[in-house]
Each structure stands twice: as structure tokens, then as C-alpha cells.
Design a protein that fits this description.
0% strand; mainly alpha; 2 domains; MADS-box domain-containing protein; 74% helix; 107 residues
């Protein structure tokens, strides 16, 4: 039994609906996959940020001289000042010995 000319527009309409449904589903699947990928990137970046934050906190606990000055105890600030003065003295001595800094001048 062959379709009549009366049935052809209905068949074309049904086929068009199926094609549109398949196309819509493909587009939705792509969007879902893109969303999953972006969510994974955000999750990875969040984990990376947390690791960096933890590393900074650990470093600050070990390297107290890296903290802001108002968070450092006075005795430790005195130690830091002594270290910096010693560094400046050694730097001046080295520059003077190489002739790069005139005697009795300081950086």
C-alpha cells in the first residue's frame, strides 16, 4: 500500500519533528558536556587555590619573616632587623672590595 498524496505532508511533518528532536537532543548533550567540563575546571581551580592557600599558611608558619610586620612579634622583628643590617654590611663590604662602592659610602 503506497502512501497517498494526502499522507505525504503528514509524513514530512513527522520526519521534520524527528529531525528537530534529534538535533535538539544533540545540542543539549553538547551543552551538558560543556557544562561538565567547565564544572571540572572550576573544581580543579578551587582545589589548586586551596593547595596554594595551605602552602602560604604553612610557609608563613615556618617563615615568620614573610608575614606582615604588624603580625610579627617584637623580638622576631628585632632579629629581622639585625639580619638586614648584617646583610647590608656584608653587601657594602663586598662592593667596596670589588671597587664598586667608594669607601665610607653605604647603600
Amino acid at each position: 500500500m503506497s502512501p497517498t498524496t494526502h499522507d505525504q505532508p503528514l509524513n514530512l511533518l513527522a520526519m521534520a519533528r524527528k529531525i528537530l528532536k534529534v538535533h535538539r537532543n544533540m545540542a543539549l548533550n553538547k551543552l551538558k558536556n560543556d557544562l561538565i567540563e567547565v564544572m571540572q575546571l572550576v573544581d580543579n581551580e578551587t582545589k589548586h587555590r586551596d593547595r596554594l592557600t595551605q602552602a602560604i599558611k604553612s610557609s608563613m608558619a615556618e617563615n615568620w619573616w614573610e608575614r606582615p610586620a604588624d603580625e610579627i612579634e617584637t623580638d622576631k622583628l628585632d632579629i629581622l632587623i639585625t639580619w638586614l643590617e648584617e646583610l647590608r654590611r656584608k653587601t657594602n663590604d663586598m662592593l667596596e672590595s670589588k671597587g664598586l662602592l667608594p669607601k665610607n659610602k653605604s647603600i
